[in-house]
Amino acid sequence: RPGVGKTTVMREIARVLADEFQKRVIVDTSNEIGGDGDIPHAAIGGARRMQVPEPSMQHRVMIEAVENHMPEVVIVDEIGTEAEAQACRSIAERGVMLIGTAHGERLANIIKNPVLSDLVGGVETVTLGDEEARARRTQKSILERKAPPTFPFLIEMRERHYWVTHRTERSVDMLLHGKKPLVEVRKRDNEFEVVIERWATYDGDGL
């Protein structure tokens, strides 16, 4: 959701990948991450910036970045349209690392959002035969993931210092089947040390 520090984190990810890991990083943004002046925002380090003249052109600039600039990493802020979701899938299938943000309180919000659900594999209704439905102990019409997710990992930024990490494929499948996935929870304690809790049961809403 707005205000949890997504943009600040994206700038730091861009800087670390470009400066410390020596990756060719392109920040693709409507100037929020990289700034809108002649000189890119200092916080993105050595990452390159591609400015998007207007939001409706973001998906075109994303594809152009991959075709013309040979990036190893593309960072996109606020994926919000179907065209951008399709561009993300196209970039991911070309073997480029993709990091992006989208607005949504929980993973379930992204699954239910018809524009963004493709980022986590999309959802379709499948009709089972009588025997299969009995074997699974479910109704005959069930929801299934349509395709592999564009993003293999998904992080819910609940608060600035409270993140929940999903393995997208596994979490989406379990939520669609009415189960609670196992996730990794990262928080900061009172001393600002990172506390990692692995294999925690997800506390978010189901579908």
What does this structure look like?
There is one protein chain. With 207 residues, this protein is α/β, with parallel strands linked by helices. The chain folds into two domains: 1-103, Rossmann fold (3-Layer(aba) Sandwich), CATH 3.40.50.300; 106-206, no CATH class. It has six helices and ten strands. A four-stranded parallel β-sheet has the order 2-1-3-4, sandwiched between helices. It has a four-stranded antiparallel β-sheet with strand order 7-8-9-10. A two-stranded antiparallel ribbon has the order 5-6. α3 (82-93) links the parallel β3 and β4 (97-100). The longest helix has 15 residues, at 6-20. The mean pLDDT is 90. One of its GO terms (molecular function) is ATP binding. Pfam families: Spore_III_AA. InterPro entries: P-loop_NTPase, Spore_III_AA_AAA+_ATPase. This is Stage III sporulation protein AA AAA+ ATPase domain-containing protein.
The name CATH uses for the topology of the largest domain is Rossmann fold
CATH level-4 homologous superfamily of the largest domain: P-loop containing nucleotide triphosphate hydrolases
Could you list the spans in which at least 5 consecutive residues all have pLDDT below 50? none
N- to C-terminal separation? Answer: 19 Å
Overall number of strands: 10
Strand content bin: 25-35%
Order of helices and strands: HEEHEHEHEHEEEHEE
Strand order, sheet with most strands: 2-1-3-4
| Helix-strand makeup class | alpha/beta
Domain Stage III sporulation protein AA AAA+ ATPase: 2-120
GO molecular function: ATP binding
InterPro entries: P-loop_NTPase, Spore_III_AA_AAA+_ATPase
Keywords: ATP-binding, Nucleotide-binding
